Amino acid sequence: MKTSIRLRVALGVFFVVAGLVTLQDVYVLSRFERALRLETDGQLDDEISEVSAVVGTDGLAAWIVAATEQHREDRELFIEVLAADGVAVARSRNVPERGLAPVAADAAKERVRRWELPHPRSRSGARLIRVAERRDGPWIIRVALGLDEAQRWYWNLRRNLVRSLPLIAGLGALAAWWVARRMLRPIAEIIARARSLGALPDGSLPRTGSGDE
């Protein structure tokens, strides 16, 4: 019975700790993903402002080439400028022919719209880019950033959290088993002494002085 109690305590602690750690991991991942998205949106807003400063000038095409070449491949920059009627005026070479329009266009009239699309060179669609669109006078400016770096950070964090979950829960269960073993030791001594009393002319049960008995 003593071993059964210790085992049940350890298993109970294991599942409780595993559940709490899982909830914490979900919260951390959601906050991390939100922080990455906010950081990306801030960079997209900065890029739109840069494009807005040169849109409508003769140097727009050359500026787009220079701007896109400055970005790393895992943080790739996409730029597309449309006229009010939706006709492309200028775009970077990495923008596909279909452009950066959302898969399901909506009728929203926000000053800045945001959405995510599969990367133009992603065969599986797992790689993503995040797009921001802003109307600037007669122009529609769309700027996108590749999310390869952000996705890599997210999946690395998720993998590390998942790997640490059984270790943390296991250590908690081991600690609970050890504590239960120490707590039940006086009871084991009392049980052993009680069994031996029948063979003795007189005797008394051991006392620890703590009052727990």
Provide keyphrases for this structure.
alpha+beta; 213 residues; rod-shaped; 5-stranded antiparallel β-sheet; 5 strands
Structure description:
With 213 residues, this protein is α+β, with helices and mostly antiparallel strands. The chain has 3 helices and 5 strands; from the N terminus they run H-H-E-E-E-E-E-H. A 5-stranded antiparallel sheet has the order 2-1-5-4-3. The radius of gyration is 32 Å and the shape is rod-shaped.
Brief characterization of the structure:
The chain is α+β, with helices and mostly antiparallel strands and 213 residues long. Helices cover 53% and strands 16% of the residues.
| End-to-end CA span | 17 Å
The description of the largest β-sheet is: 5 strands, antiparallel
- Structural class given helices, strands, pairing? alpha+beta
Strand content: 15-25%
Query: Helix proportion of residues, in percent?
Result: 40-55%
Anisotropy-based shape: rod-shaped
List the helices and strands and how they pair.
Elements: H1 2-54, H2 60-69, E1 77-83, E2 88-91, E3 112-118, E4 128-136, E5 139-146, H3 148-196
